[in-house]
Specification:
Blueprint (H helix, E strand, L loop, with lengths): L11 E5 L2 H4 L12 H6 L17 H15 L3 E5 L2 H4 L9 H16 L3 E7 L5 H4 L8 H17 L5 E6 L1 H10 L14 H20 L3 E7 L3 E3 L4 H16 L3 H5 L22 H7 L4 E5 L4 E4 L9 E3 L16 H14 L6 E5 L11 H19 L4 E7 L18 E4 L4 E4 L1 H18 L1
Parallel strand pairs: 1-2, 1-11, 2-3, 3-4, 4-5, 5-7, 6-8, 7-10, 10-11
Antiparallel strand pairs: 8-9, 12-13
Helix pairs in contact: 3-5, 7-9, 8-9, 9-12, 13-14
The structure holds beta-D-fucopyranose.
Length: about 450
């Protein structure tokens, strides 16, 4: 394959997964319950009643999965650590068997020449902490830092860089505001303290990681926001949405302040959650990298009913994924160049920590190849425009448990038969392998 994606030498190629979506073994080796176990047990919460009990059985099959990754020729693997395996109730006692699993995983990755890039929190909060308010409780931020220190003490000798949180925006909105994800709360704007406490948890964990000489990243879900028209009302709505989706989780980290949320009737203390010193703490440890999870842009119009200062408008005339998400590859370039302009020198090097699509195609998944190729072109264009992008981790290595969609949305380069657990590489797997090889060959010359 010609290496048409003009990305720099040393650019890192990877795949991403998350613990609850692939591991299974939810009751093994002393793992405690997570909010996703409890949520998935609620009738109607997850499509077809699927649970995480088995998922991809990765807990037992990780050697086979690492062999697949080695076949791809990856530089890195982004996975997440299940907090309830390490601390079954989220506080205090550490479960040695849980930590030992990640120890084995890291060693096996290193033996395969793959750098582990762990995420400390990808949504599977210990239920014991949810019983005390979850991320609405400020104490959860302190518990998170304690857990981060435990894991870093065990793996930090072999794992150079760490991601604290995955998509705090999606966790707050889906989990606490709308109730589509665990923990299933429907608090609307009263969910905002869950944003602040996640960011505080990031700040405290980042300090713990950095004290141990480890590099710190966060993975945010980001989206270019398109105003539905150039009317003042639509433009104001788009600005309000941008503040919530993009700025709420980036401004405090990079600029040390919250964005203007007055359109939501919310002051700079986020409903009383922000205490003196918090913002300093959130920004105190500079990010060594910003993880960007990009799937699609968002089109926004003036509100149609009171409550929120925006309404989401459909994006017409573009292909759509099986999930019905619009496919707009250039949105990735737009997002990155917007951030580059907006944050200037405050923007750390970027790594694309998630990007991919679900398709109904099984093995011959040309739509995924087209999706990835389009986004890599857009990424190369952003790099040519001066954005410092260091790596690309596609979502996902293999088909897995897509949260509330259960096993119905297939995002993998590898097909998983959930009855037999048989893994079969799709056409996109071979395509990605060749792309990585071509990039390496070009820069070796
Ligand atoms: C992201 C999540 C990830 C996966 C993809 C499709 O929002 O971080 O776990 O579900 O969407």
């Amino acid at each position: 394959m010609p290496d048409r994606f003009d990305l720099p030498a040393g650019f890192r190629w990877g795949v991403s997964t998350a613990s609850f979506q692939i591991e299974g073994a939810t009751e093994e080796d002393g793992r405690g319950a997570s909010i996703w176990d409890v949520f998935a047990a609620r009738p109607g919460a997850v499509r077809d009643g699927h649970t995480g009990a088995v998922a991809c059985d990765h807990y037992h099959r990780y050697p086979e999965d690492i062999a697949l990754m080695q076949g791809l020729g990856l530089d890195g693997y982004r996975f997440s650590i299940a907090w309830p395996r390490v601390q079954p109730t989220g506080a205090g006692a550490v479960n040695p068997a849980g930590l030992a699993f990640y120890d084995r995983l890291v060693d096996a990755l290193l033996a395969a020449g793959i750098t582990p890039l762990p995420t400390l929190f990808h949504w599977d909060l210990p239920q014991g902490l949810e019983d005390r308010g979850g991320w609405l409780n400020r104490d959860t931020a302190h518990r998170f830092a304690e857990y981060a220190a435990v894991v870093a003490d065990r793996l930090g000798d072999r794992v150079p860089a760490w991601i604290t949180l995955n998509e705090p925006f999606v966790h707050m909105v889906y989990g606490y505001a709308l109730g589509i994800h665990a923990p299933g709360r429907t608090l609307m704007l009263d969910a905002l303290p869950a944003a602040h406490h996640q960011l505080l948890g990031h700040g405290l964990a980042a300090a713990a990681l950095s004290e141990r000489g480890l590099a710190v990243m966060i993975a945010n879900n980001l989206t270019p926001v398109w105003s539905a028209s150039s009317s003042d009302a639509d433009l104001a709505a788009a600005q309000a949405y941008d503040a919530l989706h993009n700025r709420l989780f980036t401004d405090p980290l990079l600029l040390g302040r919250y964005p203007d949320l007055s359109a939501y009737g919310v002051g700079p203390d986020l409903g009383g959650a922000v205490r003196p010193g918090d913002l300093e703490l959130i920004a105190a440890t500079p990010l060594d990298g910003l993880g960007v999870n990009y799937y699609n842009p968002t089109r926004i119009a003036a509100p149609t009913d009171p409550g929120l200062p925006f309404t989401e408008a459909p994006i017409e005339g573009v292909p759509r994924t099986a999930f019905d998400w619009p496919v707009v590859p250039d949105g990735l370039r737009e997002l990155l160049t917007t951030f580059h302009t907006r944050y200037g020198t405050a923007l750390p090097p970027v790594t694309i920590t998630e990007n991919g699509c679900s398709t109904t195609a099984t093995l011959d998944d040309q739509p995924r190849i087209d999706y990835l190729a389009g986004h890599l072109d857009a990424l190369a264009a952003a790099v040519a425009d001066g954005v410092d992008v260091r790596g690309y981790y596609t979502w996902s290595l293999m088909d897995n448990l897509e949260w509330a969609e259960g096993l119905t949305q297939r995002f993998g380069l590898v097909h998983v038969d959930f009855t037999t657990q048989r893994r079969t590489p799709k056409a996109s797997f071979a395509w990605y392998r060749q792309l990585i090889a071509a990039h390496r060959a070009r820069h070796a010359r």
